[in-house]
Structure formats: structure tokens, C-alpha cells
Known about the structure:
Strand content of chain A: under 5%
Low-confidence stretches of chain B: none
Shape of chain B: globular
Structural class of chain B: mainly alpha
Order of helices and strands of chain A: HHHHHHHHEEEEHHHHHH
Oligomer: heterodimer
Number of strands of chain B: 0
Strand content of chain B: under 5%
Helix content of chain A: over 70%
Largest interface: A-B, 45 and 39 residues
Mean pLDDT of chain B: 82
Mean pLDDT of chain A: 78
Low-confidence stretches of chain A: 1-18
Radius of gyration of chain A: 25 Å
Structural class of chain A: mainly alpha
Distance between the termini of chain A: 23 Å
Distance between the termini of chain B: 46 Å
Number of strands of chain A: 4
Strand order of the largest sheet of chain A: 1-2
Amino acid sequence: MDASPFSAPSRLDAPAPSPHNRWMLSFILRRVFQSVLVLLVVGLVAFAMFRFVGDPIDTMLGQERTMADIERLREVLGLNKPFFIQYWDFLVRAVQGDLGISYRQGRPVAEIIAERLPATLELALVSGALALFFGIVLGIFTAIRRDGITAHFVMTVSLIGVSLPTFLIGVLLIYGFGVGIDIRIPFTDTVINTGGMPTFGRGDTDIVFGWFFGGFRSGFGTWDGVQSIILPAITLGLYQMTLIMRLVRAEMLEVLRADYIRFARARGLGDRAINFRHALKNTMVPVITVTGLQLGSIIAFAIITETVFQWPGVGLLFINAIQFVDIPVMAAYLMLISVMFVAINLIVDLLYVFIDPRLRVS
Amino acid sequence: MTDTPHTDPIPEVRAQSRFARAWDSDVGYAFRHSPVAVISATVTAILILAAVFAPLIAPHDPFNPATLNLLNGLTAPGVPSAFTGETFILGTDDQGRDVFSTILYGMRVSLFVGFAAVTFALVLGVTLGLIAAYVGGWTETIIMRIADIQLTFPSILVAMLIFGIAKGITPIEYRDQVAIAVLILAIGLSDWVQFARVVRGATLVEKNKEYVQAARLIGRSPFVIMARHILPNVLSPVLVIATISLALAIIAEATLSFLGVGAPPTEPSLGTLIRIGQTFLFSGNWWILVFPAATLLVLALSVNLLGDWLRDALNPRLR
């Protein structure tokens, strides 16, 4: 069974290419067409939410309204037009950056999202980088020393890491390193508390890049900001890290059995050269693909992490929107995240063909 | 005529009970010889029984305010309350509710939502998968395209979205009453794709086999062929996915409830209990958080291990 939830069917049922350039072109075109189709469907869902969940007229006009008011607003909002024309208008406005006005905050949704997005991106990038680094290092380690005690220990711990729900990891980290546990050093009276890490919000954000919507604010300029991101980033990255680690380990073990590695050993090459120059290089293709695809799910799982740590990103915005039935924000988040997902899937699919020459020839 | 008495060729095998036959089968053998499977199955069974018989086992009724004593509030586990002298195995929360009893009742909600959501996803996915593969053409294209699009998004996100939309449609005064049903619907709808894909794949293989052609030849209707002939032959991978889905559904439910977009406060699940427990962390009352969290972890882990084992046992290629 395919373990990844992101399998692209087109990759498998692609026709045998006669002249391969033409095949590449048709492959790219078909993937782009598919992506646009997905976005149109998601747009339709978002539009349907706008149009049919709650009556926009009801929401915008108060108790004191006349039939004339209702008719006029209906005219202004274009609600008397045919369904598909309204859908088209909605899409055009969305592409132009007009995502409506939040029912709860009374401000343009695009503005709120632009304000919140840097926090989420920062968290996603830091945890992605952590997951990638430690995942690859531990994966190589457990593959090379696969019979060692440490490697067995790491593998067992990783099994627990996979079964723990994200929110529980976050809560346990808060308990262990925010609240802290008192540990007494044996034979002394010294008690060390493991807590003290910030567990709430982003800390100071003093670096500002760019000028749009108040700029891209980052917490990396202050010690407080750096400290604040540690626990959320571990929470978010732990699952991806175990995933990458297990993948790297499996691929390494596979590659280390290959003939060319045995041949390299016969030639008298050192362990370091074999493991890193020959073996590691050939495990990287699936790792790149999986990491790329996981970037999407990091952004989705950020919803959970952001809620646990009250991290002011788009995920927390979305959860609050669900709690208060703020339809425009929900719809906008849906569209934003699907654009990201579809773009990532598309790029990874195309990269895959460019990285792995076998896919082009066969 | 067909009424001639039919002698059973292997009466002694038939005479065995269904259970004994399962025990003697290959899967039964593999089960008896796998400690992980035996332990996880036992733990799962104990937890399910504890949830089902919660009203009989629980020492207190956490939802009857008359039995609660505020003086028992925040009693540590195993320590007699400073005011009433009562002892609680796992301590109490701020209202004086017995944590052990709330966990039993919470597990009931978690397991009920999990089972109901998986059943819903299974029925929907298997039906759509069968129809897609057997009918083919446009029906198949539409069903499988929808499945592909949904697969692009993590299922927890889909569940949240469905929950949000359903919440928007229901009038405020009914929201708490329908919350559990909406939760089941949301998790079920986010999870049907797996079933549909597997069943479609298996059906595509089965539908060209001779028994299906024979059934078609004697004029059985497509519905009967799908339900009576193909369905029993594609069910074994479905069982594996259902078990793994159950673990995922329990975690999904806990996650949604934890985030405050799941079970209502009147019917707390394990996720709700963890959400409540989290607020007591900084005041040092760790037991309100740790015990529900440990229960959820043990439950999800044992169901997960059972599913993993079942996948290996039912798939001869992996052995």
C-alpha cells in the first residue's frame, strides 16, 4: 500500500514516451491542468461556503431592514446573478486579493492573513529544517550502526514518536520544559528544575523585512524570540523527523546491500567515503520528494501546534474561525492552503522527473 | 431436483464452532505466536469492555452534580481528601469529579465516535469503490477524481473543515446536541478515500474472474453481483484498513476535541479531558492531564499495533 497520502496517479499511468521531449511537455501540461482543476474545485467549495452557510444579507444588515434594503444589497453584492457568474466574480476577486471581510474582526481577510502568515512560515521552516537535519543524521546513524544498542534505542523511541498525537507531544513538552519537573541530584540537596522555557506566543519580534502589510516580522532578532520557537518547532517537527529518519534508514540499508557498494569495499575505499560519497547520495532522491510533500502537511499540522502554544499564525486563526463560525476566514484559509499544497505537489512532481533520469527514459 | 439431501464432506470440521475454527486457522496460529498481538489485543479488549461497562465500573457518576462534593476538588491521587477523607485512585478535578470515572466515560465517547466514524467511512468507501470499479466509465472517473483531490489534503484538515461548515449550518441552540453526530460525519468523510481506493483496486481484479462472469451469465443483477459475489472477496484488506483507521479516528477525534472543535463540554471525550487538564498544568495538578493522556496513548498504541500485526498476518507476501 502506498504510505504517502500524496501519491499522484498521473506519474504512474503516464504513457510510454516516443520522443521524450514531447512526453515531458505533455506530462507537465497535464499536471498543470490537473492542478488548476483542483484549485477550481476548492474555489467552488469555498464559494459555496460563502454563499450558502448563513445568509450574507442577514449577516450584513441588522434587525431594522426593509425589503428595499435587502433588494438593494442583493443587487450590490451581485447575489441576484446566476450561480456560475457569481462563482466567476468570486474567483476574480480572490485572485485580485479580495477575500472578503472577517465577520468577527470586521477587517479585510487578506490583511489579517498577511499579518499572520509570517509566524506560520517561520515555524514551518524552522521545524522543517530541524526535522530534515536530525532525520538524516539519525537515519544514517541507525543504518550504519544498525546492530548497536544506541541505534535500537533510537528506533524504539521513534516508534513512540510516531504513535504520539501532535497535540500530546506539545502538551508533554510544556509539562517537561515549561512547567518543569524537579530533579534531585543524588547524594546532594541540589534540586534542578527542568522548566523555564517560554510556552506561549512568539516572544519579541523586532526584525522586519519588507514593507507590505507592516512587513514580515521575525522573532530571530531577540533571544526571547529564538527561545519561544524551540518548543513549538520540536513539537511540529518530531513526527516528520521520525518519518525522514525511518526513510533514510530504509533507503541506506537498501543501498548498502547494492553491488556497487560491495565493489567499492573490494576496491579498499574507506568507510567514510563509502557511506557518505557513495551510499548517501543515492538515498537522497526519495528523501527530497518526501520532504517536499511533507512541507504541506507541516503547514496543516501547524494548526495543532499553534493552538497548543498560542502561536499567532494562520493555523490559530483558522481554529478560531471555526469556533466562531467566521466563514470568510475559513474560506480564505482553505484557498490559501490549497494553493500551497497544489503548488508543492506540482513542484515536487516536476522535480522528481528532473532529478531521476530513469523516469524520463523509461 | 435440488432437494436431495446434501451430505457434508467434512462434518467434523463443520461441527467446530466458529471460534474454534478461527483459533485453528493460519491467522489464529500467527496470533497465538505473536506476543505483541496477544498483548495489544488484550489491552484493547480490556479498554473497550471498561468503556462499555463504564456505568457499572465507575466509582462515581461524574455527570450527576448531586454526587459531587466541591470540597473534594483537586485531591491528589491515592491521598485522602483534606476535608472529607475520601480517597480517589486517580485524584479529582477542580469540581471534585473523580478522574478515573471521567476517563471511563470519556473513553466511551472516544471509542463510540471512533467506531461510528470508521463504520461510516467503511460503508461509504466500500460502496463507492465497488461502484467505481464495477460500473467504470464516467462514474469511476468522477468518484476517483474526488478521491484524488481529497487525498491532496491531510484528513485532519478535511475533518476540521467539514466540522466548521456543519457548525455554520446548524442553528446555535442545537449545536451541542448534534456535535457528536457532526464529529462522526466529519471524521468519516475525511477517511473514506482509503477504503474506496483499496476496494476499487481489488474489485478491478475480481470482476474479470470466472465466477463473476458466470454470475453475469445466469442473469444476476449488478447489485447482487457486487454485494453477494465480489464484496466477500475484497473484504480482507478492508479489515486491515479499518483497524488502522480506528486508531487514526480515535486520535483525530481527540485532536479535534482538544482544539475545541469536537465533543461538547457536556459529553467530554479523552481529548476534551486533556484540553481541560492542560489548564491545570501550571498549578501543579498534573494528574488531571497525565492520566487521560496516558489512557489515550495506550488505547491508540494498542489498536495501532493490532492493525500492524493484522496487516502482516493477512498479507502472505510480507511473510
